[in-house]
Specification:
With 296 residues, the chain is an alpha/beta fold. 38% of the residues lie in helices and 19% in strands. Strands 1, 2, 3, 4, 5, 6 and 9 form a seven-stranded mixed β-sheet that branches. Strands 7-8 form a two-stranded antiparallel sheet. Helix 1 runs parallel beside helix 2, helix 1 packs parallel to helix 3 and helix 5 packs across helix 6.
């Protein structure tokens, strides 16, 4: 068996919008996630990103790319600047990810997130289902089948997901990021199912809510315990202590998803500061000078 340098819950191959978005969702839910980025995302061929919601004048690709990597690292992903040459099955389950320069890594789950090149998946294609032949320039060439994964990004190979290349989701940055988030949610859901979480609780919305908007009953831990118990099927196979441990973890997590006004303001200021770190200082000074002139 190949010696491995590190072990991960999730390995994402591709550090563009789809890959980073997947990593943000998996890492935020506590899955140890590595993102391999070869530094040649198709996004970098874009002259200026003009249709990503939230940037009225668009945003330059370099800043957007840096923000995406910063976000992934902030939530716990390790971003590795290396090209993945192959992904193959490990003898005892999971996958071995073989990069070009670094040491191999073991991953329980792998997410393909490279728009143009998926040749690294060929060792997994024992049934010859991943690739299809098309004529290009008069010659027949093999391409990754963009319909290989289902609409949720899952594939016939247990533990392998595809966030890109897929059909229409791979063509626009905002769509690619959105599909990457969807795949990330399903990866989390599948991991939680393996832990024993009931079906109705395995996949959930990742968001923070305002404390002032919470009904009093949902501030009561016992109410969340009842909510959990209602979703547990009668034929579950967990021991009582395991089920209680999952339930209490879920209760703590649900209660922790509410934040008060002071915390909301703290996070707002931190969010602005992190964005400013990626902006050119001269542009910030020029903007402030113009703002001062407008007030005179």
């Amino acid at each position: 068996m190949t010696d491995v340098d590190a072990e991960w819950d999730v390995a994402v191959v591709g550090g563009g919008p789809a890959g980073c978005s997947t990593g943000v969702f998996t890492a935020r839910e506590g899955l140890d996630t590595v993102v391999f980025d070869r530094g040649r995302s198709s996004l970098q061929q874009c002259a200026h990103l003009e249709n990503y919601l939230g940037f009225p004048a668009g945003i330059d690709v370099e800043t957007f790319y840096a923000l995406a990597h910063d976000h992934a690292e902030e939530v716990g992903c390790e971003v590795v600047e290396d090209l993945v040459e192959s992904v193959e099955h490990a003898n005892d389950g999971g996958f071995i990810v073989e990069p070009q320069s670094g040491e191999p890594a073991r991953a329980t789950r792998v997410v393909a997130a490279t728009r143009y090149d998926a040749d690294y998946l060929r060792p997994l294609d024992a049934d010859d289902e991943m690739y299809e032949t098309h004529k290009h320039g008069g010659e027949e060439q093999e391409y990754f089948d963009r319909t290989y994964a289902d609409d949720d990004g899952r594939t016939p190979i247990d533990g392998l997901y595809v966030a890109s290349p897929v059909e229409e989701w791979s063509t626009q940055v905002i769509a690619a990021a959105g599909f990457g988030a969807l795949v990330g949610r399903h990866v989390v859901g599948d991991a939680r199912r393996e832990q024993g979480y009931p079906e109705g609780l395995a996949e959930r919305v990742d968001w923070l809510r305002q404390e002032r908007a919470r009904d009093e009953e949902w501030a009561d831990p016992d109410h969340w315990r009842e909510y959990f118990d209602e979703h547990v099927p009668e034929d579950h196979d967990l021991a009582d202590d395991e089920l209680i441990e999952l339930r209490e973890a879920e209760v703590d997590d649900r209660l922790g998803r509410y934040v008060d006004d002071e915390e909301i303001e703290r996070r707002r200021q931190e969010a602005h500061d992190r964005i400013l770190e990626h902006l050119d200082d001269d542009r910030i000074r020029a903007y402030l000078d113009r703002a001062d002139d407008d007030t005179l």
